[in-house]
Amino acid sequence: MNQEELFATVSKPSRYLGGEVNSIKKDFAACPVHIALAFPDTYEVGMSHLGLQILYAILNRYPDIAAERCYAPWPDMEKALRTARLPLTTLESRRPLSAFDLIGFSLQYELSYTNVLNMLDLGGIPLRCADRTQDDPLIIAGGPCTFNPAPMAPFIDAFVIGEGEEVISEIAAALREAKARGYDRERKLEQLAAIPGIYVPALFSGSRVRKRIVSDLDSWPVPSNPIVPLMKTIHDRITLEIARGCTRGCRFCQAGMVWRPVRERNLSTLEHSAEEQLCSTGYDELSLLSLSSGDYSRIEDLLIRLMNRYYSRRIALSLPSLRSETLTRTLIENIRKVRKTSFTLAPEAGTQRLRNVINKGNTEEDLLATTAQVFAAGWKAVKLYFMIGLPSEQQEDLDGIIELGHRVLKQARNRGQVTLSLSTFVPKPHTPFQWHRQIGMDEIAEKQLYLRNSIRNRNISVKVHDRRMSLLEGLFSRGDQSLGHIIEKVFRLGGRFDGWSDQLRFDLWEQALEDLNLSADAYLRERTFEEDLPWDVVDCGVSRDYLHREFQNSLSGQLTGDCRRGACLQCGVCDFKQIRIEKAQDEEEKPEQILPGHPPEKPEADFQVSRLRMIFRKGGTARLLSHLEITEALIRAIKKTGESFVFTEGFHPHPKISFAFATAVGLESEGEYADIQLKNLSAGPAVLAGAINAGLPAGLEVTKMEKIFPGHPSLSDIIRGFVYEVTVPENLQSAMEWPRMEERAAEFLRASSFSVVRETKDKTVLREIRSLVEELELSPESGKLRFHLLFRKEGSVKPSEILTEVLNLNKDFVPLMRIRKVKTLFSS
């Protein structure tokens, strides 16, 4: 069984196909340096991560480097790979991971560590650094988890500490030199260790490794043509990073400490980047990314500029990270204009006392004023994030969460919906709270239960983070190298996707801790200021003295200001030469809002509608895309041409596109039909078809496009059926019982009725299909089957049902057969 055949047997095959719009496939043999960028979670999670897209774009600018991607396979895919004895490969060239010179993992979450080991194992690479030979790739890792590299040090050859845009090119240069000069593995590691910001555990000399910082973000713009995923991802939109770093100084927040100082991109850079990305992808939502979007110094100007440009194109804007005190009426009005994206705020604590302890600083008055504006602007639901188990937390702080939820609901006059989302505080490395303890499982459960039981209003819901995950996150955030034994043992026992509640096997972690005589409490305990910490090998730039000083300030609830707006706080990260706070530069004129405060009921009433019928082919790996995935790919490709859809009316407008029939996953088609409506069409049908094809993923192709006119019959009114051809692969020919199948086909054609059983979500139904089959032919000599299936509004028959129910073929054979829709039958 080859890889494509394997894809047809697993769930969500689009995770593994590759060939996406804007992906880069180079001639592997022509590139001397081969790098695999690996993300230890599913495709839909990894494709939402901006950092991987940035590194992919940077590396592939070099003509001698082939940079490809690999994501963690879901358990069904892992099982299929192991059963077929096939290795884990990259998406672009489908070469095994072991064929690459270097594999770079992005460590975004501690609960992905077993996935890293699984990917190495499936790729044919020894898990431990000590067991690797000269022929094995170098394994490096970057991302926020590397600020405590200790737990993964037995498995990772080198850690990149800090930001990767500049250092990735230095790594590539070192690798290029090493290959040209034939360096051995040890010499390659010495090369990496000599690069600032890289920690090589095997060669550690005792000097702390200082993080890398990109001083000028504008010199490293986000990719202009990001890869467009084949499936719906976690964050299915364009990501426009407007700033990096945060100096608000929340004492629990690792990101706010390790990614300092604040650096903002200029307005002109962001406007240009937004236009490039939207034009190259066809997305209809733009997310403004930073640790605190509302703190961007030109946020109102930026929003006004973007809305002035994209309002008529129905491009929605979202700001995923907002503080209540930074939300102004202008921000709220602009966010709501095209589409009401989700609205989330993070008070973090239920009382002002505790908010001061953690240096959150925002007040209840800020929150209530903001939520009042949000509800008044038309939002029906607000989510509030809180943490439990914070240092010095008392019963009144828990009660404060409940009271605050009720007060926010009152801002909606008790007609809205408020969600209280509760996570458990994890004392992260390099924060003022790194010396505090983390509360245990029983205490977490007690607090969660109390808060759940205290809410009796149906308009307020409580969601809690899995306490088992919180314990594991704390364990690996604060652990040392001895935890490598735990990670490996759990991997050997079958642990995968520990960050997914439905996949987490917590019993395996308990078993591993017990077998290795280790206690989670030993890692979650309070630390003294004098003791060495496992993460002390890393210098995040913020001094230990500053963290200690902030720890002391928290004890008295003393607030520390934001150095962006006041004096330097001597945290230690800036050198005031290259590394310093960089605000967006002022431009000559401030933009004026040219749109009304509220969108008109029909913002585009005066336009000419063009109705077009599109015929497209679905073949190759595109046959494994779902109907929804194909729909999204076509919509984006049409938007990329610059043409504009006519939209439906209502609260959630959609582009006007209708399909004749949803072809099942795994089926090829020589002619799929769809009708679309565009406004003020600027290109002829043939030219438009070519432009659409330029924006489609591999395997999809528009073969014809023609204008239709009002009153033209709909596709469902004129299509009466389809002709399918099934090709049996050579490796299945010997298993086919052709004489028996021919007998069953003849019996079926003679019968006046034939029913099949169909399972739906909530019931089992019996469907009559004989009248829906017009012809059924078998050709043993050519190894093909052909049948005409009719399509009626009251029902249809699936090609797979002909094979399994009528001809009694083994269901496992069906995904391995080539099923093609070769013709569409029209009413006369």
Automatic annotation (TrEMBL):
Residues 232-461 form the Radical SAM core domain. GO terms for molecular function: catalytic activity; iron-sulfur cluster binding. InterPro entries: DUF2344, Elp3/MiaA/NifB-like_rSAM, Radical_SAM_N2, rSAM, rSAM_horseshoe, rSAM_sf. It comes from the Bacteria. PROSITE patterns: RADICAL_SAM. SUPFAM superfamilies: Radical SAM enzymes. CDD domains: Radical_SAM (cd01335). It holds the Pfam family Radical_SAM. PANTHER family: RADICAL SAM DOMAIN PROTEIN, SLL1084 PROTEIN. This is Radical SAM-linked protein/radical SAM family uncharacterized protein. It comes from Syntrophus gentianae.
